[in-house]
Design a protein that fits this description.
By secondary structure, this protein is α+β, with helices and mostly antiparallel strands. The protein has three domains: about 150 residues, C2 domain (Immunoglobulin-like, Sandwich); about 140 residues, C2 domain (Immunoglobulin-like), CATH 2.60.40; about 210 residues, 3-Layer(aba) Sandwich (Rossmann fold), CATH 3.40.50. It is built from twelve helices and 26 strands. Strands 17, 18, 21, 22, 24, 25 and 26 form a seven-stranded mixed beta sheet that branches. Strand 7 and strand 8 form a beta hairpin. It is elongated and about 95 Å long.
Length: about 600
Protein backbone atom coordinates (compact mmCIF):
# COMPACT_ATOMS: atom_id res chain seq x y z
CA UNK A 1 0.00 0.00 0.00
CA UNK A 2 1.02 3.57 -0.64
CA UNK A 3 1.91 5.75 2.27
CA UNK A 4 0.39 9.25 2.32
CA UNK A 5 2.35 12.02 0.66
CA UNK A 6 2.48 14.00 3.90
CA UNK A 7 -0.28 15.53 5.92
CA UNK A 8 0.49 19.10 4.97
CA UNK A 9 0.13 18.26 1.29
CA UNK A 10 -3.06 16.22 1.49
CA UNK A 11 -5.88 18.06 -0.26
CA UNK A 12 -9.23 17.99 1.46
CA UNK A 13 -11.85 16.93 -1.08
CA UNK A 14 -15.53 17.57 -0.62
CA UNK A 15 -17.52 14.70 0.92
CA UNK A 16 -18.74 13.76 -2.54
CA UNK A 17 -15.31 13.91 -4.21
CA UNK A 18 -13.97 10.63 -5.58
CA UNK A 19 -10.72 9.14 -4.36
CA UNK A 20 -7.51 10.38 -5.99
CA UNK A 21 -7.18 9.02 -9.51
CA UNK A 22 -3.81 7.78 -10.66
CA UNK A 23 -2.51 7.00 -14.12
CA UNK A 24 -0.11 4.30 -15.11
CA UNK A 25 2.93 5.20 -17.16
CA UNK A 26 4.99 2.78 -19.25
CA UNK A 27 8.73 3.51 -19.45
CA UNK A 28 11.00 2.08 -22.15
CA UNK A 29 14.74 2.22 -21.68
CA UNK A 30 17.68 2.09 -24.06
CA UNK A 31 21.36 3.05 -23.73
CA UNK A 32 24.20 3.99 -26.05
CA UNK A 33 27.99 3.89 -25.75
CA UNK A 34 28.07 2.05 -22.43
CA UNK A 35 31.40 1.45 -20.74
CA UNK A 36 32.99 -1.92 -21.50
CA UNK A 37 33.78 -3.59 -18.17
CA UNK A 38 34.62 -7.05 -19.56
CA UNK A 39 38.12 -8.06 -20.63
CA UNK A 40 37.36 -10.67 -23.26
CA UNK A 41 33.88 -9.58 -24.23
CA UNK A 42 31.53 -6.61 -24.07
CA UNK A 43 29.47 -5.67 -21.01
CA UNK A 44 26.24 -7.55 -20.32
CA UNK A 45 24.01 -4.63 -19.22
CA UNK A 46 20.94 -4.68 -17.02
CA UNK A 47 18.90 -1.66 -15.80
CA UNK A 48 17.59 -1.35 -12.25
CA UNK A 49 14.67 0.99 -11.56
CA UNK A 50 14.59 2.45 -8.05
CA UNK A 51 11.96 4.70 -6.51
CA UNK A 52 12.37 6.95 -3.50
CA UNK A 53 10.02 6.25 -0.60
CA UNK A 54 10.29 8.10 2.70
CA UNK A 55 13.82 9.18 1.86
CA UNK A 56 15.04 5.67 1.00
CA UNK A 57 15.76 4.29 -2.46
CA UNK A 58 13.96 0.98 -3.06
CA UNK A 59 14.37 -1.25 -6.09
CA UNK A 60 10.99 -1.74 -7.75
CA UNK A 61 11.94 -3.61 -10.91
CA UNK A 62 14.79 -4.55 -13.22
CA UNK A 63 15.22 -5.30 -16.89
CA UNK A 64 16.46 -8.43 -18.57
CA UNK A 65 20.22 -8.88 -19.14
CA UNK A 66 21.35 -8.26 -22.71
CA UNK A 67 24.50 -10.17 -23.53
CA UNK A 68 27.59 -8.47 -24.93
CA UNK A 69 25.97 -5.20 -26.02
CA UNK A 70 27.09 -1.61 -25.41
CA UNK A 71 24.00 -0.15 -27.14
CA UNK A 72 21.15 -2.15 -25.61
CA UNK A 73 17.45 -1.66 -26.28
CA UNK A 74 15.69 -3.34 -23.38
CA UNK A 75 12.50 -5.27 -24.04
CA UNK A 76 11.39 -4.88 -20.43
CA UNK A 77 8.70 -2.21 -20.03
CA UNK A 78 8.64 -0.59 -16.61
CA UNK A 79 5.15 0.32 -15.39
CA UNK A 80 4.83 2.92 -12.63
CA UNK A 81 1.85 4.59 -11.00
CA UNK A 82 1.78 8.28 -11.79
CA UNK A 83 0.26 10.63 -9.21
CA UNK A 84 -0.19 14.11 -10.53
CA UNK A 85 -0.13 15.68 -7.06
CA UNK A 86 3.16 14.08 -5.99
CA UNK A 87 6.83 14.44 -6.90
CA UNK A 88 7.93 10.88 -7.62
CA UNK A 89 11.67 10.40 -7.76
CA UNK A 90 13.13 7.65 -9.91
CA UNK A 91 16.67 6.41 -10.33
CA UNK A 92 17.93 4.30 -13.22
CA UNK A 93 21.12 2.36 -12.56
CA UNK A 94 22.93 0.35 -15.26
CA UNK A 95 25.09 -2.60 -14.20
CA UNK A 96 27.23 -5.19 -15.94
CA UNK A 97 25.74 -8.58 -15.11
CA UNK A 98 27.88 -11.64 -14.39
CA UNK A 99 25.88 -14.68 -15.41
CA UNK A 100 24.66 -16.82 -12.52
CA UNK A 101 25.88 -14.36 -9.91
CA UNK A 102 23.35 -11.85 -11.22
CA UNK A 103 23.64 -8.08 -11.09
CA UNK A 104 26.42 -6.80 -8.89
CA UNK A 105 26.35 -3.65 -6.81
CA UNK A 106 30.08 -3.03 -6.69
CA UNK A 107 31.67 -0.01 -8.34
CA UNK A 108 33.38 -2.34 -10.82
CA UNK A 109 29.96 -3.48 -12.09
CA UNK A 110 28.40 -0.01 -12.19
CA UNK A 111 28.07 1.41 -15.70
CA UNK A 112 26.30 4.63 -14.76
CA UNK A 113 23.14 6.11 -13.32
CA UNK A 114 20.61 8.87 -13.82
CA UNK A 115 18.04 10.34 -11.42
CA UNK A 116 14.79 12.01 -12.45
CA UNK A 117 11.13 12.47 -11.56
CA UNK A 118 8.10 10.84 -13.10
CA UNK A 119 6.10 13.98 -13.65
CA UNK A 120 6.56 17.68 -14.10
CA UNK A 121 9.06 19.41 -11.81
CA UNK A 122 10.01 23.04 -12.12
CA UNK A 123 13.72 23.23 -13.08
CA UNK A 124 14.05 26.44 -11.13
CA UNK A 125 12.99 24.91 -7.82
CA UNK A 126 14.79 21.59 -7.36
CA UNK A 127 13.24 19.40 -4.69
CA UNK A 128 16.17 17.10 -4.09
CA UNK A 129 19.88 17.38 -3.51
CA UNK A 130 22.39 16.18 -6.11
CA UNK A 131 22.81 12.41 -6.29
CA UNK A 132 26.35 11.04 -5.91
CA UNK A 133 26.89 11.04 -9.67
CA UNK A 134 25.10 14.33 -10.43
CA UNK A 135 27.45 17.33 -10.88
CA UNK A 136 24.83 20.07 -10.59
CA UNK A 137 21.90 20.49 -8.17
CA UNK A 138 19.31 20.79 -10.93
CA UNK A 139 20.71 18.16 -13.29
CA UNK A 140 18.38 15.23 -13.90
CA UNK A 141 15.18 17.07 -12.96
CA UNK A 142 13.45 15.71 -16.00
CA UNK A 143 9.92 16.08 -17.23
CA UNK A 144 9.60 12.51 -18.42
CA UNK A 145 5.87 12.44 -18.80
CA UNK A 146 5.66 15.90 -20.36
CA UNK A 147 8.57 15.40 -22.77
CA UNK A 148 7.68 11.78 -23.70
CA UNK A 149 11.30 11.09 -24.68
CA UNK A 150 14.37 12.12 -22.69
CA UNK A 151 18.03 11.36 -23.37
CA UNK A 152 20.60 12.18 -20.70
CA UNK A 153 24.22 11.26 -19.94
CA UNK A 154 24.99 8.56 -17.42
CA UNK A 155 27.16 9.47 -14.45
CA UNK A 156 29.46 7.41 -12.29
CA UNK A 157 29.94 8.15 -8.62
CA UNK A 158 31.02 11.63 -7.50
CA UNK A 159 29.79 13.41 -10.62
CA UNK A 160 32.12 11.74 -13.10
CA UNK A 161 30.76 11.22 -16.62
CA UNK A 162 30.50 7.58 -17.67
CA UNK A 163 32.38 8.31 -20.87
CA UNK A 164 29.94 9.05 -23.68
CA UNK A 165 27.26 6.80 -22.18
CA UNK A 166 23.66 7.98 -22.48
CA UNK A 167 20.30 6.63 -21.38
CA UNK A 168 17.01 7.27 -23.17
CA UNK A 169 13.65 7.00 -21.41
CA UNK A 170 10.46 6.96 -23.47
CA UNK A 171 7.21 7.35 -21.55
CA UNK A 172 3.62 6.64 -22.44
CA UNK A 173 0.53 7.03 -20.29
CA UNK A 174 -1.75 4.01 -20.35
CA UNK A 175 -5.30 5.01 -21.12
CA UNK A 176 -7.95 4.28 -18.51
CA UNK A 177 -9.96 1.92 -20.74
CA UNK A 178 -6.88 0.02 -21.85
CA UNK A 179 -6.86 -3.73 -22.38
CA UNK A 180 -4.23 -6.23 -23.32
CA UNK A 181 -3.74 -8.86 -25.98
CA UNK A 182 -2.26 -12.36 -25.77
CA UNK A 183 -0.32 -13.48 -28.85
CA UNK A 184 1.13 -16.86 -29.85
CA UNK A 185 3.63 -16.98 -32.75
CA UNK A 186 5.57 -19.66 -34.54
CA UNK A 187 7.72 -19.78 -37.70
CA UNK A 188 8.29 -22.33 -40.44
CA UNK A 189 11.29 -23.12 -42.64
CA UNK A 190 13.47 -20.21 -41.57
CA UNK A 191 16.84 -19.65 -43.27
CA UNK A 192 19.72 -21.47 -41.62
CA UNK A 193 22.39 -18.97 -40.61
CA UNK A 194 24.67 -21.36 -38.72
CA UNK A 195 27.40 -23.46 -40.30
CA UNK A 196 27.46 -26.51 -38.03
CA UNK A 197 23.96 -26.37 -36.58
CA UNK A 198 20.57 -24.82 -37.22
CA UNK A 199 19.59 -21.20 -36.46
CA UNK A 200 18.62 -20.15 -32.93
CA UNK A 201 15.70 -17.82 -33.80
CA UNK A 202 13.93 -15.19 -31.72
CA UNK A 203 11.24 -12.69 -32.72
CA UNK A 204 10.96 -8.96 -32.03
CA UNK A 205 7.78 -6.93 -32.51
CA UNK A 206 8.08 -3.17 -33.11
CA UNK A 207 5.45 -0.44 -33.22
CA UNK A 208 5.99 2.24 -35.85
CA UNK A 209 5.11 5.69 -34.48
CA UNK A 210 3.86 8.74 -36.34
CA UNK A 211 7.41 10.12 -36.67
CA UNK A 212 8.46 6.80 -38.30
CA UNK A 213 10.54 5.83 -35.27
CA UNK A 214 10.22 2.27 -33.99
CA UNK A 215 9.47 1.23 -30.42
CA UNK A 216 10.30 -2.29 -29.29
CA UNK A 217 7.12 -3.89 -27.98
CA UNK A 218 8.28 -7.41 -27.17
CA UNK A 219 11.23 -9.76 -27.63
CA UNK A 220 10.57 -13.50 -27.42
CA UNK A 221 12.81 -16.14 -25.93
CA UNK A 222 15.44 -17.88 -28.09
CA UNK A 223 14.51 -21.32 -29.44
CA UNK A 224 17.76 -23.23 -29.90
CA UNK A 225 18.69 -25.15 -33.04
CA UNK A 226 15.26 -25.00 -34.71
CA UNK A 227 14.17 -23.65 -38.11
CA UNK A 228 10.48 -24.02 -37.27
CA UNK A 229 10.30 -22.59 -33.75
CA UNK A 230 7.18 -22.25 -31.59
CA UNK A 231 7.58 -19.31 -29.23
CA UNK A 232 5.87 -19.05 -25.86
CA UNK A 233 2.61 -17.01 -25.86
CA UNK A 234 2.99 -13.52 -24.40
CA UNK A 235 0.81 -10.64 -23.27
CA UNK A 236 1.21 -6.95 -24.09
CA UNK A 237 -1.07 -3.98 -23.52
CA UNK A 238 -2.92 -2.62 -26.52
CA UNK A 239 -1.39 0.72 -25.69
CA UNK A 240 2.13 -0.73 -26.03
CA UNK A 241 1.35 -2.75 -29.12
CA UNK A 242 -0.44 -0.21 -31.28
CA UNK A 243 -1.32 2.85 -29.15
CA UNK A 244 -4.88 1.43 -29.22
CA UNK A 245 -4.99 2.18 -32.98
CA UNK A 246 -5.89 -0.90 -35.02
CA UNK A 247 -4.42 0.43 -38.27
CA UNK A 248 -1.03 1.45 -36.82
CA UNK A 249 1.81 -0.25 -38.67
CA UNK A 250 3.79 -2.98 -36.90
CA UNK A 251 7.07 -4.61 -37.84
CA UNK A 252 8.19 -8.11 -36.92
CA UNK A 253 11.86 -9.08 -37.13
CA UNK A 254 13.33 -12.59 -36.83
CA UNK A 255 16.95 -12.95 -35.74
CA UNK A 256 19.42 -15.79 -35.32
CA UNK A 257 20.79 -15.41 -31.78
CA UNK A 258 24.54 -14.94 -31.28
CA UNK A 259 26.03 -15.12 -27.78
CA UNK A 260 28.45 -12.28 -28.62
CA UNK A 261 25.55 -9.94 -29.40
CA UNK A 262 26.07 -10.00 -33.19
CA UNK A 263 22.70 -11.47 -34.08
CA UNK A 264 22.13 -12.43 -37.73
CA UNK A 265 19.14 -10.93 -39.52
CA UNK A 266 16.83 -13.62 -40.94
CA UNK A 267 13.90 -11.57 -42.16
CA UNK A 268 11.06 -9.17 -41.43
CA UNK A 269 7.35 -8.69 -42.04
CA UNK A 270 4.86 -5.82 -41.65
CA UNK A 271 1.31 -5.96 -40.35
CA UNK A 272 -1.31 -4.14 -38.27
CA UNK A 273 -3.33 -5.11 -35.23
CA UNK A 274 -6.40 -5.03 -37.46
CA UNK A 275 -4.86 -7.76 -39.59
CA UNK A 276 -3.69 -9.72 -36.56
CA UNK A 277 -7.26 -10.00 -35.28
CA UNK A 278 -8.08 -12.40 -38.11
CA UNK A 279 -6.24 -15.01 -36.01
CA UNK A 280 -8.98 -15.06 -33.38
CA UNK A 281 -10.74 -18.38 -32.90
CA UNK A 282 -9.64 -21.25 -35.15
CA UNK A 283 -8.15 -19.00 -37.80
CA UNK A 284 -4.45 -18.33 -38.32
CA UNK A 285 -2.62 -15.49 -40.02
CA UNK A 286 0.78 -15.82 -41.63
CA UNK A 287 3.34 -13.58 -43.30
CA UNK A 288 6.33 -14.16 -45.51
CA UNK A 289 9.52 -13.41 -43.58
CA UNK A 290 11.46 -11.31 -46.07
CA UNK A 291 15.13 -10.36 -46.33
CA UNK A 292 15.19 -7.24 -48.58
CA UNK A 293 18.82 -7.87 -49.67
CA UNK A 294 18.03 -11.42 -50.81
CA UNK A 295 14.95 -10.17 -52.65
CA UNK A 296 17.14 -7.87 -54.74
CA UNK A 297 20.03 -10.30 -55.29
CA UNK A 298 18.21 -13.62 -55.81
CA UNK A 299 16.03 -13.98 -58.87
CA UNK A 300 13.90 -16.84 -57.55
CA UNK A 301 13.81 -15.65 -53.96
CA UNK A 302 10.44 -16.32 -52.33
CA UNK A 303 11.03 -15.75 -48.61
CA UNK A 304 13.32 -16.61 -45.69
CA UNK A 305 10.56 -18.54 -43.99
CA UNK A 306 7.02 -17.94 -42.81
CA UNK A 307 5.83 -16.40 -39.50
CA UNK A 308 2.45 -17.64 -38.26
CA UNK A 309 0.19 -16.03 -35.65
CA UNK A 310 -1.38 -19.11 -34.07
CA UNK A 311 -3.74 -17.38 -31.67
CA UNK A 312 -4.85 -13.95 -30.51
CA UNK A 313 -6.94 -13.22 -27.43
CA UNK A 314 -8.12 -9.75 -26.44
CA UNK A 315 -8.66 -9.08 -22.75
CA UNK A 316 -10.57 -6.03 -21.58
CA UNK A 317 -9.19 -4.41 -18.42
CA UNK A 318 -12.04 -3.07 -16.32
CA UNK A 319 -11.81 -0.15 -13.93
CA UNK A 320 -13.13 0.23 -10.39
CA UNK A 321 -15.95 2.41 -11.70
CA UNK A 322 -16.88 -0.27 -14.24
CA UNK A 323 -17.57 -2.65 -11.35
CA UNK A 324 -19.40 -0.06 -9.25
CA UNK A 325 -21.53 1.05 -12.20
CA UNK A 326 -22.23 -2.62 -12.86
CA UNK A 327 -23.89 -2.92 -9.46
CA UNK A 328 -21.05 -4.15 -7.25
CA UNK A 329 -21.79 -3.28 -3.61
CA UNK A 330 -19.14 -2.52 -0.99
CA UNK A 331 -20.11 -4.22 2.27
CA UNK A 332 -18.53 -2.54 5.29
CA UNK A 333 -17.78 -4.28 8.59
CA UNK A 334 -16.18 -2.60 11.61
CA UNK A 335 -14.41 -4.56 14.36
CA UNK A 336 -13.72 -2.79 17.66
CA UNK A 337 -11.09 -3.69 20.23
CA UNK A 338 -12.63 -4.09 23.70
CA UNK A 339 -9.53 -5.38 25.50
CA UNK A 340 -8.68 -4.12 29.00
CA UNK A 341 -5.63 -2.17 27.77
CA UNK A 342 -8.06 0.48 26.50
CA UNK A 343 -8.82 1.48 30.09
CA UNK A 344 -12.08 1.64 32.04
CA UNK A 345 -14.65 3.41 29.80
CA UNK A 346 -15.92 5.32 32.85
CA UNK A 347 -12.49 6.93 33.25
CA UNK A 348 -11.79 10.02 31.14
CA UNK A 349 -8.31 8.62 30.34
CA UNK A 350 -9.84 5.56 28.65
CA UNK A 351 -9.71 5.28 24.86
CA UNK A 352 -13.38 4.22 25.09
CA UNK A 353 -14.48 7.17 27.23
CA UNK A 354 -17.66 8.76 25.84
CA UNK A 355 -17.57 12.55 25.98
CA UNK A 356 -20.65 14.10 24.35
CA UNK A 357 -18.59 17.07 23.21
CA UNK A 358 -15.36 15.36 22.15
CA UNK A 359 -15.43 12.09 20.19
CA UNK A 360 -12.86 9.46 21.05
CA UNK A 361 -10.46 8.08 18.47
CA UNK A 362 -12.56 4.98 17.86
CA UNK A 363 -15.54 7.12 16.83
CA UNK A 364 -13.43 9.45 14.68
CA UNK A 365 -11.86 6.60 12.71
CA UNK A 366 -15.17 4.74 12.36
CA UNK A 367 -17.09 7.71 10.97
CA UNK A 368 -14.29 8.98 8.71
CA UNK A 369 -13.98 5.66 6.88
CA UNK A 370 -17.66 4.67 7.11
CA UNK A 371 -18.96 7.83 5.48
CA UNK A 372 -16.96 7.04 2.33
CA UNK A 373 -17.92 3.36 2.23
CA UNK A 374 -21.63 4.05 2.69
CA UNK A 375 -21.79 5.67 -0.74
CA UNK A 376 -21.10 2.27 -2.31
CA UNK A 377 -23.58 0.26 -0.22
CA UNK A 378 -27.23 0.53 -1.22
CA UNK A 379 -28.81 -0.49 2.10
CA UNK A 380 -26.46 1.71 4.21
CA UNK A 381 -26.33 -0.97 6.91
CA UNK A 382 -23.00 -1.79 8.50
CA UNK A 383 -21.99 -4.92 10.38
CA UNK A 384 -20.30 -4.15 13.70
CA UNK A 385 -18.33 -6.69 15.72
CA UNK A 386 -16.31 -6.59 18.91
CA UNK A 387 -13.41 -8.63 20.24
CA UNK A 388 -11.49 -9.10 23.48
CA UNK A 389 -14.40 -8.68 25.94
CA UNK A 390 -16.50 -10.74 28.30
CA UNK A 391 -20.08 -10.54 27.09
CA UNK A 392 -23.49 -11.31 28.61
CA UNK A 393 -25.22 -13.45 29.61
CA UNK A 394 -22.41 -15.80 30.79
CA UNK A 395 -19.64 -13.22 30.52
CA UNK A 396 -17.33 -15.50 28.57
CA UNK A 397 -14.55 -14.00 26.48
CA UNK A 398 -15.52 -13.52 22.84
CA UNK A 399 -13.43 -12.40 19.88
CA UNK A 400 -16.22 -12.05 17.30
CA UNK A 401 -19.45 -10.88 18.93
CA UNK A 402 -22.07 -8.57 17.42
CA UNK A 403 -22.06 -5.31 19.38
CA UNK A 404 -25.84 -5.09 18.99
CA UNK A 405 -25.95 -8.53 20.71
CA UNK A 406 -28.01 -10.00 17.87
CA UNK A 407 -26.08 -13.09 16.70
CA UNK A 408 -28.46 -13.58 13.77
CA UNK A 409 -28.03 -10.07 12.35
CA UNK A 410 -24.94 -8.01 13.20
CA UNK A 411 -26.01 -5.09 10.98
CA UNK A 412 -26.76 -1.90 12.90
CA UNK A 413 -29.62 0.51 12.27
CA UNK A 414 -29.99 3.93 13.85
CA UNK A 415 -32.93 4.48 16.18
CA UNK A 416 -31.86 7.70 17.88
CA UNK A 417 -34.06 10.63 18.66
CA UNK A 418 -33.35 13.86 16.85
CA UNK A 419 -31.85 15.20 20.07
CA UNK A 420 -29.31 12.38 20.16
CA UNK A 421 -28.35 12.93 16.53
CA UNK A 422 -27.93 16.63 17.28
CA UNK A 423 -25.57 15.71 20.12
CA UNK A 424 -23.46 13.60 17.78
CA UNK A 425 -23.48 16.38 15.19
CA UNK A 426 -21.87 18.65 17.79
CA UNK A 427 -18.88 16.30 17.59
CA UNK A 428 -18.50 17.32 13.93
CA UNK A 429 -19.07 13.66 13.13
CA UNK A 430 -22.71 13.08 12.33
CA UNK A 431 -25.52 15.19 10.94
CA UNK A 432 -29.29 14.66 10.94
CA UNK A 433 -28.79 13.30 7.40
CA UNK A 434 -26.09 10.79 8.32
CA UNK A 435 -27.03 7.32 7.02
CA UNK A 436 -28.49 4.92 9.54
CA UNK A 437 -25.55 2.53 9.20
CA UNK A 438 -22.99 4.83 10.78
CA UNK A 439 -25.48 6.21 13.27
CA UNK A 440 -26.54 2.68 14.20
CA UNK A 441 -22.94 1.54 14.76
CA UNK A 442 -22.24 4.55 16.97
CA UNK A 443 -25.37 3.89 19.03
CA UNK A 444 -24.64 0.17 19.35
CA UNK A 445 -21.06 0.95 20.38
CA UNK A 446 -22.18 3.37 23.09
CA UNK A 447 -24.93 1.01 24.24
CA UNK A 448 -22.74 -2.07 24.56
CA UNK A 449 -19.94 -0.46 26.59
CA UNK A 450 -21.79 -0.61 29.96
CA UNK A 451 -22.87 -4.21 29.31
CA UNK A 452 -19.48 -5.80 28.67
CA UNK A 453 -16.27 -6.32 30.63
CA UNK A 454 -13.08 -5.29 28.84
CA UNK A 455 -10.69 -8.22 28.93
CA UNK A 456 -8.32 -9.76 26.36
CA UNK A 457 -6.21 -10.90 24.61
CA UNK A 458 -6.08 -8.96 21.32
CA UNK A 459 -7.04 -11.72 18.90
CA UNK A 460 -8.24 -10.55 15.48
CA UNK A 461 -7.94 -13.77 13.43
CA UNK A 462 -11.46 -14.93 14.45
CA UNK A 463 -13.06 -11.77 13.05
CA UNK A 464 -11.03 -11.92 9.82
CA UNK A 465 -12.10 -15.54 9.43
CA UNK A 466 -15.75 -14.69 10.14
CA UNK A 467 -15.90 -12.00 7.45
CA UNK A 468 -13.92 -14.25 5.10
CA UNK A 469 -16.60 -16.94 5.38
CA UNK A 470 -19.22 -14.49 4.12
CA UNK A 471 -16.86 -13.36 1.35
CA UNK A 472 -16.30 -17.00 0.37
CA UNK A 473 -20.06 -17.46 -0.04
CA UNK A 474 -20.07 -14.41 -2.30
CA UNK A 475 -17.16 -15.78 -4.35
CA UNK A 476 -19.17 -18.88 -5.16
CA UNK A 477 -21.75 -16.75 -7.02
CA UNK A 478 -19.00 -16.09 -9.63
CA UNK A 479 -20.26 -12.55 -10.05
CA UNK A 480 -18.83 -9.14 -9.23
CA UNK A 481 -21.74 -8.34 -6.94
CA UNK A 482 -20.28 -7.72 -3.46
CA UNK A 483 -16.86 -6.78 -2.11
CA UNK A 484 -16.09 -6.72 1.62
CA UNK A 485 -14.09 -4.16 3.61
CA UNK A 486 -13.16 -5.01 7.20
CA UNK A 487 -12.12 -2.04 9.36
CA UNK A 488 -10.30 -3.19 12.52
CA UNK A 489 -9.84 -0.59 15.26
CA UNK A 490 -7.33 -1.68 17.92
CA UNK A 491 -5.20 -0.12 20.62
CA UNK A 492 -2.29 -2.57 20.47
CA UNK A 493 -0.33 -5.21 18.60
CA UNK A 494 -2.34 -8.34 17.94
CA UNK A 495 -1.63 -11.32 20.20
CA UNK A 496 -2.45 -14.04 17.67
CA UNK A 497 -0.01 -12.85 14.99
CA UNK A 498 0.57 -16.31 13.47
CA UNK A 499 -3.16 -17.03 13.15
CA UNK A 500 -3.75 -13.51 11.83
CA UNK A 501 -1.13 -13.94 9.10
CA UNK A 502 -2.70 -17.25 8.11
CA UNK A 503 -6.18 -15.69 8.02
CA UNK A 504 -4.95 -12.78 5.85
CA UNK A 505 -3.30 -15.14 3.36
CA UNK A 506 -6.58 -17.07 3.06
CA UNK A 507 -8.56 -13.82 2.74
CA UNK A 508 -6.30 -12.56 -0.07
CA UNK A 509 -8.02 -15.09 -2.36
CA UNK A 510 -11.45 -13.64 -1.57
CA UNK A 511 -13.33 -10.40 -2.44
CA UNK A 512 -12.07 -8.69 0.68
CA UNK A 513 -9.80 -5.89 1.94
CA UNK A 514 -8.65 -5.20 5.50
CA UNK A 515 -7.95 -1.79 7.04
CA UNK A 516 -6.33 -1.67 10.47
CA UNK A 517 -6.26 1.61 12.38
CA UNK A 518 -4.07 1.73 15.48
CA UNK A 519 -5.73 3.80 18.21
CA UNK A 520 -3.79 5.36 21.09
CA UNK A 521 -0.08 5.75 21.71
CA UNK A 522 1.11 2.12 21.71
CA UNK A 523 4.19 0.99 19.79
CA UNK A 524 2.71 -0.41 16.58
CA UNK A 525 6.03 -1.36 14.97
CA UNK A 526 5.17 -5.07 14.91
CA UNK A 527 1.89 -4.32 13.13
CA UNK A 528 3.80 -3.17 10.04
CA UNK A 529 4.46 -6.83 9.25
CA UNK A 530 0.80 -7.14 8.24
CA UNK A 531 1.17 -4.31 5.73
CA UNK A 532 2.85 -5.21 2.47
CA UNK A 533 5.03 -2.09 2.27
CA UNK A 534 8.21 -3.82 3.49
CA UNK A 535 7.81 -7.07 1.61
CA UNK A 536 5.29 -9.82 0.89
CA UNK A 537 3.27 -11.02 3.87
CA UNK A 538 3.51 -14.78 4.33
CA UNK A 539 1.69 -17.33 6.43
CA UNK A 540 3.63 -19.15 9.17
CA UNK A 541 4.18 -21.96 6.63
CA UNK A 542 5.69 -19.52 4.13
CA UNK A 543 2.77 -19.17 1.72
CA UNK A 544 2.59 -15.62 0.31
CA UNK A 545 -0.57 -13.56 -0.02
CA UNK A 546 -2.13 -13.60 -3.46
CA UNK A 547 -2.88 -9.85 -3.22
CA UNK A 548 -1.76 -7.13 -0.85
CA UNK A 549 -5.08 -6.54 0.96
CA UNK A 550 -3.99 -4.95 4.25
CA UNK A 551 -3.48 -1.28 5.03
CA UNK A 552 -2.26 -0.34 8.51
CA UNK A 553 -2.28 3.27 9.77
CA UNK A 554 -1.63 4.65 13.29
CA UNK A 555 -4.44 7.11 14.04
CA UNK A 556 -2.08 9.47 15.89
CA UNK A 557 -0.57 10.48 12.52
CA UNK A 558 -3.96 11.99 11.65
CA UNK A 559 -4.89 13.58 14.97
CA UNK A 560 -4.50 17.10 13.63
CA UNK A 561 -5.86 16.36 10.17
CA UNK A 562 -9.42 16.36 8.92
CA UNK A 563 -11.39 13.07 8.80
CA UNK A 564 -11.19 13.16 5.01
CA UNK A 565 -7.39 12.88 5.22
CA UNK A 566 -7.63 9.63 7.19
CA UNK A 567 -10.27 8.24 4.83
CA UNK A 568 -8.19 9.14 1.79
CA UNK A 569 -5.15 7.37 3.20
CA UNK A 570 -6.77 4.13 4.31
CA UNK A 571 -9.13 3.79 1.35
CA UNK A 572 -6.70 4.81 -1.41
CA UNK A 573 -5.77 1.20 -2.15
CA UNK A 574 -9.31 -0.21 -2.22
CA UNK A 575 -10.19 0.55 -5.89
CA UNK A 576 -7.00 -1.18 -7.04
CA UNK A 577 -7.64 -4.15 -4.74
CA UNK A 578 -11.18 -4.54 -6.09
CA UNK A 579 -9.93 -4.54 -9.69
CA UNK A 580 -7.05 -6.92 -8.87
CA UNK A 581 -9.41 -9.45 -7.32
CA UNK A 582 -11.99 -9.49 -10.10
CA UNK A 583 -9.26 -9.48 -12.77
CA UNK A 584 -7.63 -12.49 -11.09
CA UNK A 585 -10.99 -14.31 -11.05
CA UNK A 586 -11.80 -13.09 -14.59
CA UNK A 587 -15.17 -11.78 -13.37
CA UNK A 588 -16.43 -8.95 -15.60
CA UNK A 589 -18.76 -6.25 -14.26
CA UNK A 590 -22.33 -7.50 -14.09
CA UNK A 591 -23.53 -4.71 -16.40
CA UNK A 592 -20.41 -3.31 -18.06
CA UNK A 593 -20.57 0.23 -19.31
CA UNK A 594 -20.58 0.54 -23.10
CA UNK A 595 -17.08 1.36 -24.43
CA UNK A 596 -16.33 5.00 -25.11
CA UNK A 597 -16.47 5.63 -28.86
Amino acid sequence: PRAPAGMGAVPEPSPQAPLAVLSKVELRVSCKHLLDRDTLNKSDPCVLLLMQSQGQWMEVDRSEVIKSNLNPVFAKIFTVDYYFEEVQKLRFEVYDSHGHTGVGTHDDDFLGGMECTVGQVSPGTPTWGPPPWCPHPNAGLLQIVAQKRVTKPLFLKYGKFAGKSTITIISEEISGNNGYVELAFRAKKLDDKDLFSKSDPFLEIYRIDDDCSEQLVYRTEVVKNNLSPVWEPFKVSLNSLCSCEEKRKLRGVVWDYDSRGKHDFIGEFFTTFEEMQKAMGENKVQWDCMNPKYKIKKRNYKNSGVVVLLDLKIHRVYSFLDYIMGGCQIHFTVAIDFTASNGDPRNSCSLHYINPYQPNEYLKALVAVGEICQDYDSDKKFSALGFGARIPPKYEVSHDFAINFNPDNDECEGKSSSRRVWSLARMSLLTPHTPSGIQGVVESYQSCLPKIQLYGPTNVAPIITKVARVAADEERTKEASQYFILLILTDGVVTDMADTREAIVRASYLPMSIIIVGVGNADFTDMQILDGDDGVLRSPKGEPVLRDIVQFVPFREFKNASPTALAKCVLAEVPKQVVEYYSYKAFPPRCPRPPTP
